[in-house]
Amino acid sequence: PILGYMWPTVKVTILGLSIAILLGIALAVLMNLSRSVERALFPYAVVLQTVPILAITPLLTQLFGEELGVRLVVTVLIAIFPVITNTLFGLQSTDQMHHDLFTLNHVSRRTRLWRLELPSALPSLMTGIRIASGSAVIGSVVADFFFVKGEKGIGYYIRTRQQKSIERPEMFAGTITASIFGVLMFLLVGWVTTRAIRDWHDND
């Protein structure tokens, strides 16, 4: 039964992490292009990271319902911050001498981003993705706890088993299963990001 509850959690984790990566990179690039955009958007990213999800649960329920959509939103909100911060740090840490060289050669802004800033930011970005992978697992399990319509995830399994002392072994089994999934997810993403960095530099 546990594996049947794991699939919805796995699905939400992968989809939520993918959205968080794409959206986080896009926001970081926008903030890197314009200081005014960074000053306007970054405080909201910090607020999203610090506000307890439980505090905005009623709002999320009204906006997205209680099924797959709201679980994805919770997962993205929890996972996106390390992607934004690490990508932005990497983009802004590009060597100034390289920037000057690109300026002397009148390189376009798009080429500068693609050929200089993104390769320089890649290690930081991949670190952010690895951190976000663990956060995405936490987000999907937390969402399972509080949004129970539709497919039931491992968080729902754990919550319902903890209410009866006779089912505590099942609760611990669910917790261990979720933890193993989190570790496997972190290791898999770590392997993928390491390969991505190596392949990028080999092809560059």
Commentary on this structure:
The chain has 204 residues and is mainly α. The chain has a single domain, classed as Orthogonal Bundle (MetI-like fold). Helices cover 85% and strands 0% of the residues. The protein has helices at 2-33, 35-50, 57-64, 68-92, 96-104, 109-146, 154-162, 168-203. The longest helix is centred in the middle third of the chain and has 38 residues, at 109-146. The protein is elongated. The termini are far apart.
Q: What is the CATH homologous superfamily assignment?
A: MetI-like
Largest sheet: none
- Helix-strand pattern: HHHHHHHH
- CATH architecture classification: Orthogonal Bundle
Gyration radius over CA: 20 Å
CATH topology: MetI-like fold
Total tally of structural domains: 1
Count of DSSP-assigned helices: 8
Helix content: over 70%
Name the poorly predicted regions.
none
Overall number of strands = 0
CATH class reads Mainly Alpha
Q: Which structural class best describes the helix and strand composition?
A: mainly alpha
Outline type: elongated
Average pLDDT, all residues: 84
Residue fraction in strands: under 5%
What is the CA-CA span between the terminal residues?
47 Å
Quick rundown:
The chain has 204 residues and is mostly helical. It contains 8 helices and no strands. The longest helix is centred in the middle third of the chain and has 38 residues, at 109-146.
